[in-house]
Design brief:
Largest sheet: 6 strands, mixed
Number of helices: 3
Mean pLDDT: 93
CATH architecture: Roll
CATH superfamily: 2,3-Dihydroxybiphenyl 1,2-Dioxygenase, domain 1
CATH topology: 2,3-Dihydroxybiphenyl 1,2-Dioxygenase, domain 1
CATH class: Alpha Beta
Shape: globular
Low-confidence stretches: none
Strand content: 25-35%
């Protein structure tokens, strides 16, 4: 079986969050979607579960942090090229997200930007020239 990742995110407004993720290229999986959760697939191996706060609380007793005020994770996703990085950030901004809450990073062989979803969860789309990083040693440009 291929290993998969399911990222679970608490969201304040499920329909709004579902629409946002659809706008930036995720596809809803209706078999795992109801009024408390929406399964949003980015690829065959990456799925984001958007959970209402009530549903989230059924998984943990920990407090739901306000992602607009504190950072718990940064979710990095690869894109096929630099223009695809820019495109998803621009689409996020146009659909209720915040573009570049963190400074863009451009190392030549690697390029990344960031955006926040409507709840403040930070995503970092990035592109890397794999031919430039296939050497044996550390990448000096990042130092």
């Amino acid at each position: 079986m291929t290993q998969m990742i399911f990222v679970n995110l608490p969201v304040a407004d499920l329909p709004k969050s579902k629409a946002f993720y659809e706008a930036i290229g995720f596809t809803n999986e209706p078999r795992f979607t109801d009024e408390t959760a929406a399964a949003m697939q980015l690829s065959e191996t990456i799925c984001v579960m958007l959970l209402t706060h009530e549903k989230w609380r059924s998984f943990t007793t920990k407090e739901i942090p306000d992602a607009k005020k504190s950072a718990q994770v940064a979710l990095c996703i690869s894109r096929e090229d630099r223009s695809a990085v820019d495109a998803i950030v621009d689409t996020a901004r146009a659909n209720g997200g915040t573009a570049d809450p963190n400074p863009p990073q451009d190392y030549g062989f690697m390029y990344g930007r960031s955006f926040e979803d409507p709840d403040g969860h930070v995503w970092e789309p990035m592109w890397m020239d794999m031919e430039a990083v296939t050497g044996a040693g550390p990448v000096e440009a990042m130092a």
